């Protein structure tokens, strides 16, 4: 998720991409603040953690993944970006395991983004041979078919899906793919299935962005603060939680 795009000079920077990404990261910061208040300090925010709010969270997370997939088209070295992102994700995993073992982070958004970038870096020469108008519908279909994997089935909905063998889940080693065993817990969890297909769909649409074929507004910056946040999402992600915990420590006297 190293969102400082190392762009080639021939590419026009897409200000709207930065703004959408900035808006998504700020929504994530807000969500985490509400999460901490609710589960750590017992301050319940009505509506924040009802079932529908998880859908809203996933929409913004999906938008972030889609834009990040588009950003891969601008980067000179997606493998390096992916390794850096995954490494930072692992640091966060170990920090939480040490300081907050009751709230583990196993394959969170940084892990997902890092692995997705590395997958793109390895297979881009093959993936990009598929025409965009064919690839994007395929990504949509695969997302729909795999969205229930974490719940034990393959298909659009459980009633119409195919139950997957429990042995795949009981192994406990395939959680990065979405095969989680009973009792699995992660405070931040975005498995490759189905989310990789959102990322790849963005990578395909990114072809139009780098070829300067998007509408003119896409390349303009409409809100500089949002665009700034979009350029530094990795730093915001890494630093926002310690900053928030420091603020809550001052307010409540404990973490």
Textual characterization of the structure:
The protein is mostly helical and 255 residues long. It has one domain (15-252). It is built from nine helices and two strands. It has helices at residues 15-39, 51-71, 78-99, 109-127, 132-146, 166-170, 192-210, 224-231, 233-252, and strands at residues 153-154, 162-163. It has a two-stranded antiparallel ribbon with strand order 1-2.
Write the layout of secondary structure elements.
Blueprint: H1 15-39, H2 51-71, H3 78-99, H4 109-127, H5 132-146, E1 153-154, E2 162-163, H6 166-170, H7 192-210, H8 224-231, H9 233-252
Antiparallel strand pairs: 1-2
Following the backbone from N to C, one meets helices and strands in this order, namely: HHHHHEEHHHH
Q: Estimate the mean pLDDT confidence.
A: 89
The largest pleated sheet is described as: 2 strands, antiparallel
What percentage of residues falls in helices of 4 or more residues?
A: 55-70%
């Amino acid at each position: 998720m190293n969102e400082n795009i190392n762009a080639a000079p021939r590419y026009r920077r897409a200000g709207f991409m930065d703004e959408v990404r900035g808006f998504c990261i700020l929504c994530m910061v807000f969500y985490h603040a509400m999460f901490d208040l609710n589960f750590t300090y017992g301050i319940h925010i009505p509506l924040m953690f009802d079932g529908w709010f998880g859908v809203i969270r996933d929409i913004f997370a999906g938008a972030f993944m889609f834009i990040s997939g588009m950003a891969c088209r601008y980067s000179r070295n997606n493998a390096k970006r992916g390794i850096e992102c995954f490494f930072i994700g692992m640091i966060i995993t170990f920090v939480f395991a040490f300081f907050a073992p009751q709230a583990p982070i196993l394959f969170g958004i940084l892990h997902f983004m890092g692995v997705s970038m590395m997958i793109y870096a390895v297979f881009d020469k093959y993936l990009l041979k598929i025409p965009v108008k064919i690839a994007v519908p395929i990504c949509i279909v695969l997302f729909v078919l795999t969205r229930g994997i974490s719940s034990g089935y393959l298909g659009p909905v459980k009633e119409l899906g195919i139950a997957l063998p429990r042995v795949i889940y009981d192994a406990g080693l395939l959680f990065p793919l979405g095969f989680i065993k009973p009792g699995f817990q992660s405070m931040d969890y975005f498995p490759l299935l189905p989310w990789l297909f959102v990322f790849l769909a963005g990578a395909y649409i990114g072809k139009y962005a780098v070829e300067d074929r998007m509408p003119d507004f896409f390349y303009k910056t409409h809100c500089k603060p949002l665009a700034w946040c979009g350029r530094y999402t990795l730093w915001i992600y890494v630093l926002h939680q310690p900053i928030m915990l420091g603020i809550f420590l001052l307010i409540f006297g404990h973490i």
